[in-house]
Specification:
237 residues, alpha+beta, 60s Ribosomal Protein L30, Chain: A, 9 helices, 4 strands, 49% helix, elongated, ribonuclease P activity, RNase_P_Pop3, ribonuclease MRP activity
Length: 237
Protein backbone atom coordinates (compact mmCIF):
# COMPACT_ATOMS: atom_id res chain seq x y z
CA UNK A 1 0.00 0.00 0.00
CA UNK A 2 2.87 2.31 0.74
CA UNK A 3 4.43 1.75 -2.72
CA UNK A 4 1.21 2.63 -4.51
CA UNK A 5 0.93 5.83 -2.53
CA UNK A 6 4.45 6.76 -3.56
CA UNK A 7 3.81 6.14 -7.26
CA UNK A 8 0.79 8.41 -7.43
CA UNK A 9 2.80 11.60 -7.26
CA UNK A 10 5.15 10.30 -9.96
CA UNK A 11 2.26 9.63 -12.32
CA UNK A 12 0.85 13.09 -11.70
CA UNK A 13 4.28 14.51 -12.41
CA UNK A 14 4.48 12.74 -15.78
CA UNK A 15 1.02 13.95 -16.75
CA UNK A 16 1.97 17.51 -15.88
CA UNK A 17 4.99 17.26 -18.16
CA UNK A 18 2.89 16.02 -21.04
CA UNK A 19 0.29 18.77 -20.72
CA UNK A 20 1.15 21.93 -22.56
CA UNK A 21 0.11 25.36 -21.41
CA UNK A 22 -2.04 27.30 -23.88
CA UNK A 23 -1.04 30.95 -24.09
CA UNK A 24 -2.68 33.97 -25.66
CA UNK A 25 -0.20 33.83 -28.53
CA UNK A 26 -1.40 30.33 -29.41
CA UNK A 27 -4.99 31.55 -29.49
CA UNK A 28 -4.10 34.48 -31.70
CA UNK A 29 -2.08 32.33 -34.14
CA UNK A 30 -4.63 29.55 -34.37
CA UNK A 31 -6.61 29.41 -37.66
CA UNK A 32 -9.95 29.30 -35.85
CA UNK A 33 -9.17 32.43 -33.89
CA UNK A 34 -8.01 34.17 -37.04
CA UNK A 35 -11.22 33.35 -38.87
CA UNK A 36 -13.54 34.46 -36.06
CA UNK A 37 -11.48 37.34 -34.75
CA UNK A 38 -13.21 39.99 -36.86
CA UNK A 39 -16.75 38.90 -36.07
CA UNK A 40 -16.13 38.33 -32.36
CA UNK A 41 -14.45 41.70 -31.87
CA UNK A 42 -17.27 43.43 -33.73
CA UNK A 43 -19.99 41.77 -31.67
CA UNK A 44 -18.27 42.27 -28.33
CA UNK A 45 -19.54 45.19 -26.25
CA UNK A 46 -17.76 46.32 -23.10
CA UNK A 47 -19.49 48.45 -20.48
CA UNK A 48 -17.11 51.16 -19.37
CA UNK A 49 -17.79 52.94 -16.08
CA UNK A 50 -18.20 56.72 -16.49
CA UNK A 51 -15.38 58.88 -15.21
CA UNK A 52 -16.26 61.15 -12.30
CA UNK A 53 -19.60 61.79 -10.57
CA UNK A 54 -22.93 62.03 -12.45
CA UNK A 55 -23.52 65.28 -14.31
CA UNK A 56 -26.73 66.05 -12.43
CA UNK A 57 -24.86 66.55 -9.15
CA UNK A 58 -23.63 69.92 -10.43
CA UNK A 59 -27.27 71.02 -10.81
CA UNK A 60 -28.43 70.14 -7.27
CA UNK A 61 -28.53 72.13 -4.04
CA UNK A 62 -28.67 70.11 -0.82
CA UNK A 63 -29.65 71.15 2.69
CA UNK A 64 -32.25 73.41 4.30
CA UNK A 65 -29.91 76.38 4.75
CA UNK A 66 -28.45 76.27 1.25
CA UNK A 67 -31.85 75.99 -0.45
CA UNK A 68 -33.22 78.81 1.72
CA UNK A 69 -30.34 81.11 0.75
CA UNK A 70 -30.87 80.39 -2.94
CA UNK A 71 -34.60 81.10 -2.68
CA UNK A 72 -33.95 84.42 -0.93
CA UNK A 73 -31.49 85.45 -3.64
CA UNK A 74 -33.95 84.50 -6.39
CA UNK A 75 -36.77 86.48 -4.77
CA UNK A 76 -34.59 89.57 -4.35
CA UNK A 77 -33.40 89.27 -7.94
CA UNK A 78 -36.95 89.09 -9.30
CA UNK A 79 -38.04 92.10 -7.23
CA UNK A 80 -35.13 94.22 -8.38
CA UNK A 81 -33.13 94.10 -5.15
CA UNK A 82 -30.12 92.69 -7.01
CA UNK A 83 -28.66 93.78 -10.30
CA UNK A 84 -30.08 91.47 -12.96
CA UNK A 85 -27.04 91.99 -15.17
CA UNK A 86 -24.78 90.47 -12.52
CA UNK A 87 -23.90 86.81 -12.86
CA UNK A 88 -26.27 84.62 -10.87
CA UNK A 89 -26.83 80.87 -10.63
CA UNK A 90 -29.64 79.30 -12.69
CA UNK A 91 -33.14 79.31 -11.31
CA UNK A 92 -34.60 76.46 -9.29
CA UNK A 93 -37.28 74.35 -10.96
CA UNK A 94 -38.12 71.69 -8.36
CA UNK A 95 -37.65 71.48 -4.58
CA UNK A 96 -37.96 68.05 -2.97
CA UNK A 97 -38.81 68.15 0.75
CA UNK A 98 -38.74 65.16 3.11
CA UNK A 99 -41.34 66.72 5.41
CA UNK A 100 -42.34 63.44 7.08
CA UNK A 101 -38.70 62.85 8.11
CA UNK A 102 -37.96 66.36 9.44
CA UNK A 103 -38.31 66.79 13.19
CA UNK A 104 -39.45 69.39 14.14
CA UNK A 105 -41.38 70.31 10.98
CA UNK A 106 -41.05 74.02 11.77
CA UNK A 107 -37.52 73.87 10.33
CA UNK A 108 -39.01 73.86 6.83
CA UNK A 109 -42.24 75.82 7.42
CA UNK A 110 -40.74 78.87 5.70
CA UNK A 111 -40.16 77.11 2.37
CA UNK A 112 -43.78 77.33 1.07
CA UNK A 113 -43.79 81.09 1.76
CA UNK A 114 -40.52 81.64 -0.09
CA UNK A 115 -41.68 79.54 -3.04
CA UNK A 116 -45.00 81.42 -3.19
CA UNK A 117 -43.16 84.75 -3.02
CA UNK A 118 -40.95 83.75 -5.94
CA UNK A 119 -43.82 82.39 -8.04
CA UNK A 120 -45.81 85.59 -7.41
CA UNK A 121 -43.19 87.57 -9.35
CA UNK A 122 -44.34 85.71 -12.50
CA UNK A 123 -41.04 84.08 -13.49
CA UNK A 124 -40.65 82.17 -16.78
CA UNK A 125 -40.71 78.85 -14.90
CA UNK A 126 -42.41 78.49 -11.53
CA UNK A 127 -40.87 76.48 -8.72
CA UNK A 128 -42.63 73.23 -7.79
CA UNK A 129 -42.53 72.26 -4.12
CA UNK A 130 -42.80 68.45 -3.91
CA UNK A 131 -43.36 66.64 -0.62
CA UNK A 132 -41.77 63.18 -0.45
CA UNK A 133 -43.12 60.25 1.60
CA UNK A 134 -41.66 59.04 4.86
CA UNK A 135 -38.30 57.32 4.52
CA UNK A 136 -37.27 59.38 1.50
CA UNK A 137 -34.53 61.17 3.45
CA UNK A 138 -32.80 57.89 4.22
CA UNK A 139 -32.92 56.89 0.56
CA UNK A 140 -31.58 60.25 -0.64
CA UNK A 141 -28.81 60.35 1.96
CA UNK A 142 -27.76 56.83 1.03
CA UNK A 143 -27.57 57.72 -2.67
CA UNK A 144 -25.73 61.01 -2.04
CA UNK A 145 -23.36 59.50 0.49
CA UNK A 146 -24.08 62.06 3.23
CA UNK A 147 -25.80 61.86 6.60
CA UNK A 148 -28.89 64.02 6.04
CA UNK A 149 -30.75 65.26 2.95
CA UNK A 150 -33.93 66.92 4.19
CA UNK A 151 -34.30 69.31 1.22
CA UNK A 152 -32.96 69.10 -2.33
CA UNK A 153 -33.36 71.68 -5.11
CA UNK A 154 -33.04 70.86 -8.81
CA UNK A 155 -31.93 73.60 -11.21
CA UNK A 156 -33.89 74.49 -14.31
CA UNK A 157 -30.96 73.45 -16.53
CA UNK A 158 -30.50 70.00 -15.00
CA UNK A 159 -30.13 67.11 -17.47
CA UNK A 160 -33.15 64.83 -17.90
CA UNK A 161 -35.33 67.43 -16.16
CA UNK A 162 -38.27 66.60 -18.42
CA UNK A 163 -38.35 63.07 -17.02
CA UNK A 164 -38.59 64.43 -13.48
CA UNK A 165 -41.29 66.94 -14.41
CA UNK A 166 -43.40 64.19 -15.96
CA UNK A 167 -43.62 62.57 -12.51
CA UNK A 168 -44.87 65.69 -10.70
CA UNK A 169 -47.52 66.97 -13.11
CA UNK A 170 -50.18 66.84 -10.39
CA UNK A 171 -48.24 69.10 -8.00
CA UNK A 172 -49.90 72.56 -7.80
CA UNK A 173 -47.92 75.78 -8.17
CA UNK A 174 -47.82 77.78 -4.92
CA UNK A 175 -48.63 81.47 -5.32
CA UNK A 176 -49.77 84.36 -3.13
CA UNK A 177 -52.37 86.65 -4.67
CA UNK A 178 -51.62 89.54 -2.29
CA UNK A 179 -47.94 89.39 -3.17
CA UNK A 180 -48.71 89.29 -6.88
CA UNK A 181 -50.76 92.50 -6.56
CA UNK A 182 -47.96 94.22 -4.64
CA UNK A 183 -45.43 93.19 -7.26
CA UNK A 184 -47.58 94.56 -10.10
CA UNK A 185 -47.95 97.91 -8.30
CA UNK A 186 -44.20 98.05 -7.70
CA UNK A 187 -43.56 97.38 -11.39
CA UNK A 188 -45.88 100.24 -12.38
CA UNK A 189 -44.16 102.62 -9.97
CA UNK A 190 -40.73 101.60 -11.18
CA UNK A 191 -41.80 102.29 -14.77
CA UNK A 192 -42.94 105.83 -13.85
CA UNK A 193 -40.05 108.33 -13.55
CA UNK A 194 -39.90 109.97 -10.11
CA UNK A 195 -37.98 113.16 -9.32
CA UNK A 196 -35.49 112.52 -6.51
CA UNK A 197 -35.94 114.41 -3.23
CA UNK A 198 -33.59 117.35 -2.48
CA UNK A 199 -33.35 118.41 1.18
CA UNK A 200 -32.50 122.12 1.51
CA UNK A 201 -33.07 122.74 5.22
CA UNK A 202 -33.23 120.55 8.27
CA UNK A 203 -34.54 121.53 11.69
CA UNK A 204 -33.69 119.44 14.69
CA UNK A 205 -33.80 119.67 18.48
CA UNK A 206 -30.49 117.89 18.91
CA UNK A 207 -27.68 120.23 20.04
CA UNK A 208 -24.88 121.05 17.65
CA UNK A 209 -22.19 120.76 20.32
CA UNK A 210 -22.84 117.83 22.62
CA UNK A 211 -20.09 118.82 25.06
CA UNK A 212 -21.51 122.30 25.64
CA UNK A 213 -25.01 120.87 26.05
CA UNK A 214 -23.74 118.42 28.66
CA UNK A 215 -22.07 121.22 30.64
CA UNK A 216 -25.25 123.28 30.52
CA UNK A 217 -27.31 120.39 31.88
CA UNK A 218 -24.83 119.88 34.70
CA UNK A 219 -24.92 123.58 35.59
CA UNK A 220 -28.72 123.50 35.55
CA UNK A 221 -28.78 120.60 37.99
CA UNK A 222 -26.40 122.42 40.37
CA UNK A 223 -28.55 125.56 40.23
CA UNK A 224 -31.68 123.53 40.94
CA UNK A 225 -30.06 122.02 44.03
CA UNK A 226 -29.06 125.48 45.30
CA UNK A 227 -32.60 126.78 44.87
CA UNK A 228 -33.96 123.78 46.73
CA UNK A 229 -31.59 124.46 49.64
CA UNK A 230 -32.57 128.12 49.77
CA UNK A 231 -36.27 127.19 49.92
CA UNK A 232 -35.69 124.73 52.76
CA UNK A 233 -33.76 127.38 54.76
CA UNK A 234 -36.50 129.92 54.23
CA UNK A 235 -39.14 127.50 55.51
CA UNK A 236 -37.02 126.66 58.57
CA UNK A 237 -36.80 130.35 59.58
Amino acid sequence: MNRKRKREPLEEKHTRKKTRRVTTNDLENSPIAGADQGSSSADMQVDVAPDGPPAILAHLTLGINQVTKRLEVLVRTRRGGIDKNASSPPAIRIILVCRADVNPPMLIDHLPHLVAAYNSTKPPDSILLVQLPQGAEFTLSKVMGIRRVAVMAVNSDAPELSNILSLVTSVPVLTASWLAAAVSVAEIKSATPIIPTHIKQLRTTAPKDMKVAKEQRAAGRVAAKERKKDKSKAVAK
